[in-house]
């Protein structure tokens, strides 16, 4: 590991200043991903700016049913929060489906959003990777890509975003609170937080140097919503999603789908909000053929690779089964 | 053969080293307190085939704390050896990606690691190939298949296959697998002058390593001492010397101070031996009653460019079922990969996946219950040699396992079980492993204060060997367990085999029994009184083993699995896995159960997860960490049970044991694959059983 300095600023302004003054400084929160990447030589920061001294670790439930989650809230604490479990069970389920107990106790909400892909080539500095070393090429497209993306990818990068939490947040219409380097506070919908890889896969989010994620806000869940996170993975715990779905469904009295929100993990460079499928399903009865057609429409734009084409079928099956279950009569 | 009497043996004695391990007091190989240690970090090749043209170490040497950079042409010279995996930095040839091509030695681990990233290596690159082509014209028949003859042929297999009313012909594949011991390779090297070397090494065979390293450094026998007190698992990877202890010794010599080397998990994927992949064609011919009239088992694997280690997958078919016509064979292709090595139940684990899957397919084809099919093909004599078995508990295991699992009344129809969204199925398979034994020495001492000490270069890699050998010694002495001090894992204690082949307890235990009996005789000569200078006896079992009668010796088992497959997603879970085993005498139920359960989890992991993915472009294992190379997690294991039957076998060894280290990870994968077929009607012949291999079997299922 390259030698580095450790800095612990007292407030966000100091942190922004340190980050702007040192081009090779990075933010340290829980460290569960950053430290691994430093050991591997993927990241070689000159300085770690520890933001845990001033970042909120509070969960503030609001009277309207919404919640503001501090960026410093640990994944384990968020998963265990009673209000979250009652109002946003899909979020608690997603958090508990991620990583391990030890990691969840360290990992933070902000860090979870900003974690890097686990693509084997991104993590191996002896091989090319456009995300790690722009212009060097994508080794995954011709190599091991079974776990990588099938939609929203580009010829330059097929990496997936590994978070479970962010998939649930996407389905819950989360807004990311950001302190811009100049001190301005902005709220960015999660759906606009991540950037498509295109020709610049090294640019993953709208976060610029000196910006700090301060929290995540969830609007109230729709009344009567049923929600679920189903993570399909290769082993029963401690594995990234092959495909996951976070679904929020409101069933109208006539049996049609009054509201349906679907986000997918494991398939795209960001938590993938299935807007095409949602639009096709809103106001429809959740019949299997309707559900399947909507899910297939979502993946009309898929561009799978030879070894991960199965993910498209799997995602379609998973959407179909999950919405059928949530949108059908309660069992 | 006189058996030991039983008192401590048979009791569920706690692990002798359990407290030390749990509290952190146990000293592992790089934890010895040393003055002024340095740290070596290997630089691994980034091409799969070619040669090192130049090494630029200037940037690395400029880092404060860097003591030396070793590279071809600037490294201590080694003597010739059979296994090129040991001969690091002696030449510029690169035979696989991840080969040691240089090493940085520094005053701290962090500095060594960082500086290693600054070493620039230029290569002459040649085209490489790492994937098996089963139709390759470069396939060859190896001279041995891990100690077994490469081929066998009895009767007329081709004629039997042509004439038989029922023939099953299927090809099964298993991927490369990695031993994945919790503790990676670790070694501390300490030279005393130029002629004496101590290696604190994570090692399955200290006595053998001592000889190997002595020869490599041109030192006389006895000049190298190996200490291997605590080992965090080996599973075969620490049986033979590979690069790490050699690098530690070279680096320590180069910088004239103690040197520690600790491999990372990522490095282990090329530094350690892996289980070679297999492509196995199995043909079974049977009469209408299910009796086998022919078995043909042909296996293909890979090996490296510079050494042959060929996974002996077909060998297991030579001794399991009665058949008049029996043919087995092995071929391999040399590829630009690290030399494979032994991994828990070499050959037999992948071999039984194929054979026992094929038996299940045959049972289904014939409409015979899978347990009954095995019983009908039981045999009293080894079908390949004609020798009688010393004992054969297979049918008893099958019956007992079926009883415990609740096999009776099973609806054999595929896809006949369902609970909600889950398809439920059951399957079974046979386990077997040969009984291996090797000569060993041991020393027994009596002291004037009434204490006893036994020394044997056994090594406890987590098996419980340290505990059960003390139980054996105490019983043979007729004293309480705490009156015996058992010392293991130092090569000074004399010649002994490695912890491998499930042969440890049989081999070391035999020597312990012999040493203690000899000590008692000496004690009797002294009228039962220990003389002031004490008594000491050293024995060697070489001659005893040479007199072993000509039996075929094997352990057996039967494993039963229940699986659930999600009807929409293909998610696969194993809620129940039961095993019943017959392995001679069980010395310590507590440590035995732990080993048997561990083996079954190993087999479950092989069935569901383990898959070393060779990257055709770069030539390495692309998924070289535990996020990419999955092994079973706790949540994958549900109701797991291991039982054994009482088995008394006088034709084994004075301890009466067959060995249990590998038995229970054979057959597991087939039991699970067979249950998957029963649940889904879809036969997966390629491991691991992943979503994409399983999901095609779910098609046509209505949703909702």
From TrEMBL, chain A:
Q: Which UniProt keywords apply?
A: Oxidoreductase
What molecular function terms (GO) are annotated for this protein?
A: FAD binding; oxidoreductase activity
Q: What is this protein called?
A: Xanthine dehydrogenase YagS FAD-binding subunit
Q: Which InterPro entries match?
A: CO_DH_flav_C (IPR005107), CO_DH_flav_C_dom_sf (IPR036683), Diverse_Substr_Oxidored (IPR051312), FAD-bd_PCMH (IPR016166), FAD-bd_PCMH-like_sf (IPR036318), FAD-bd_PCMH_sub1 (IPR016167), FAD-bd_PCMH_sub2 (IPR016169), Mopterin_DH_FAD-bd (IPR002346)
> A Pfam family name for this chain?
CO_deh_flav_C
Where do the FAD-binding PCMH-type domain residues begin and end? Answer: 1-223
TrEMBL record, chain B:
Gene3D superfamilies, alphabetized: Aldehyde oxidase/xanthine dehydrogenase, a/b hammerhead, Aldehyde oxidase/xanthine dehydrogenase, molybdopterin binding domain
Query: What sequence ranges are listed for the domain Aldehyde oxidase/xanthine dehydrogenase a/b hammerhead?
Result: 23-127
One annotated GO molecular function is:
oxidoreductase activity
- List UniProt keywords, sorted A-Z: Molybdenum, Oxidoreductase
Q: Which domain of life is it from?
A: Bacteria
SUPFAM superfamilies in alphabetical order: CO dehydrogenase molybdoprotein N-domain-like, Molybdenum cofactor-binding domain
Please give the InterPro entries that the UniProt record associates with this protein. Answer: Ald_Oxase/Xan_DH_a/b, Ald_Oxase/Xan_DH_a/b_sf, Ald_Oxase/xanthine_DH-like, AldOxase/xan_DH_MoCoBD1, AldOxase/xan_DH_MoCoBD2, AldOxase/xan_DH_Mopterin-bd_sf
State if Transferase is listed as a keyword: no
Entry's PANTHER family? Answer: ALDEHYDE OXIDASE 1-RELATED (PTHR11908:SF132), XANTHINE DEHYDROGENASE (PTHR11908)
Q: What is this protein called?
A: Xanthine dehydrogenase, molybdenum binding subunit apoprotein
Source organism per entry reads Goodfellowiella coeruleoviolacea
